[in-house]
Amino acid sequence: MTATLRGRIVVSFVAFALVVAAIFGLAGAAVLYSAEDRFFETLLAEEAAALASRARVTGAWAAPRHDWMTVHVTRATMPPDLAPQLAAAPRRVEFTGAQGRHYHVRALPAPGGGAPAAWLVAEVSERLVIRPLRRTIAIRWAIMEAAIVALAIGLALAIGRRVARPLSQLAASVRALDPALPAHAAVLRTGDREVRLVATALDELRTRVAAFVEREQAFTRDASHELRTPLSVIRSSTARALEDDTLADGTRRTLERVLRSAEQLEVTIRSLLALAREGELAAPDTPTALRPVIEEAVLEQGGALDAAALTVELDVPRGATLPASAAVLRIVLANVLGNACVHAAPGVVHVRVAGDGALVIENAVSPGTMPDVDTLAEPGVRREHSPGYGLGLAIATRLCARSGLSLDIRTDRRTTFAVRIAAARRDVRTSHAGTSDLLTRTR
Amino acid sequence: MPGGLHVLVVEDSRALGESIRELLTSHGHRADLAADGRAGLQMALAEPPDVLVLDLSLPGMDGLRLCARLRAECDRHVPVLMLTARDTLPDKLAGFEAGADDYLLKPFANEELLARCHALSQRHRAGQAHLLRIGTLVIDRREGTVTRAGRPLALRQTARQLLLVLAEAWPRAVTRSELVRRVWGDDPPESDPLRTHLYGLRQVLDKPFATPMLVTIHEVGFRLQADA
What we know:
The complex is a heterodimer.
Chain A: H1 5-58, E1 69-72, H2 83-88, E2 94-96, E3 102-109, E4 116-123, H3 134-175, H4 185-190, H5 193-242, H6 249-276, E5 288-289, H7 290-300, H8 302-307, E6 310-315, E7 321-322, H9 326-343, E8 347-353, E9 359-364, H10 373-376, H11 392-402, E10 405-411, E11 416-423, E12 430-432, H12 435-439
Parallel strand pairs in A: 6-8, 10-12
Antiparallel strand pairs in A: 1-4, 2-3, 3-4, 5-7, 8-9, 9-11, 10-11
Chain B: E1 6-10, H1 14-26, E2 30-34, H2 37-46, E3 51-54, H3 63-73, E4 80-84, H4 89-97, E5 102-105, H5 110-123, E6 131-134, E7 137-140, E8 145-148, E9 151-152, H6 157-169, E10 174-175, H7 176-184, H8 193-205, E11 214-217, E12 221-224
Parallel strand pairs in B: 1-2, 1-3, 3-4, 4-5
Antiparallel strand pairs in B: 6-7, 7-8, 8-9, 10-12, 11-12
Helix pairs in contact in B: 2-3, 6-8
């Protein structure tokens, strides 16, 4: 209960009520006992004055008027449960005796002053008013205490509800925050000043986020249009030019390179737009089957793979999945396969699922061309002879990181280069693995 | 491609518009070009084309409004292929809501643009919608018959289903996973179900002819290749 604001308010109110009631209860008891003591002291003072007055006439201490009072000229005649206590504390006036007895003592001064000539002792246990009423007083006090606590709880709940309601509404609004929705108007009208301040600040933030989202959408829409339209011209025109059977071999190779570059640029644009958009990176409710996505990616890269003399060998069971959207996996695979088309040695690209469920894309590189894996996933880091801008793997890595995947680059430092895509446990790593780990094919 | 189509291309990029016009005319079609939305709508209403290839980001009147106005004002159904760089799902849904018949993203493959234009024009031609033609291959979806170069092909049911999936996707390749899903649904047989049935399809579709139409893409899929 204390985890909620309302719970904390209730607990605080109850604790405060208990402490206040305890203090007032103790103070009340002290007042009662003081009044009772003062009553006996007054009676003793009046009796002492009367005894002294008579002693001045008769020269001896007379018997007190009350039978529960006695005069003692020595401690030896006092009740045995009183004498030692009085000897030990001659200035005390109140003593608790044995078997419920209770004494009030007043010194009767000698006519000439100095040490007391006698003591007036009153055994008051039969006349105490408070002691017999202690149980009744305690019960009434407890009832009043319970009533106060109940009142405090009721008050605390009312205040807590009043304070927490706008906050709860605010929390619900923030949880369902949609930049397209209007401001938290209800909270703004009914909340307290502090809550209204928070709501206002959140609305300002919402407005800024809405403006940001609008700018982002406008930017990605414009960027998509401005980049893809000329790319369409390049791709369409090049493909049409390649239909000419009379082209010289050199010209054909040049046009094929233009077409491959246009395809590579298309993958890059798609990746960058996906990175810029919030929604596309959300993980789906159910994991995505890998086999169909890989087949689509290989088909899409078919021309580039053929041009690089690469064939793809799949070792991906039909039930293999990863917890990311198909769109993200398609883009990441297009980047990784496109990277292989540029950098792999001619031969085979193995695409397989490792024992821990990770997707591994593995290819050979020519001796002496192994890149530095520690910097490979950083943007702008290009390998020697790379025609790209060093963005492909960096984009793929960032896409994975934002989509709940991890992308590791592993090499044996000689000729085997592998990209490993798995459900994320921590941020992107690059590492050198042993050859046996890389080359072990696991179903 | 049989029969020249009249295609109106509404595209504000002059370079892309010209490129598409050249592509279409080189394949025997007539192509008109409009560089803005208002001109495109006027041309489409004045002489309704067989297919309207429509960009969305246009000066004057954007593609969505043009499409909606065309649907409201034209006395016949003009097939609209939206050709755009807007690739998000809301953009596509907005396109279909405005009345688009098909949606193709930039950049595109020339073959796919041509095939979609052809398919759209056929879809609205009475009595022709059930026929699929790829080269000399003709599939009659209503009658369930298949001929190649005029010779009837006796295909088993599963082989015919596979051929239909490949033909409907043509010129695009179809992945193995998509073929399995389209024919067997989400609960395919345990063993590789494609091997036997594609062998049977090849025996009937390709073996009696000089040019094979069914092309294998190593490990990942298949596609049909027109033989004429």
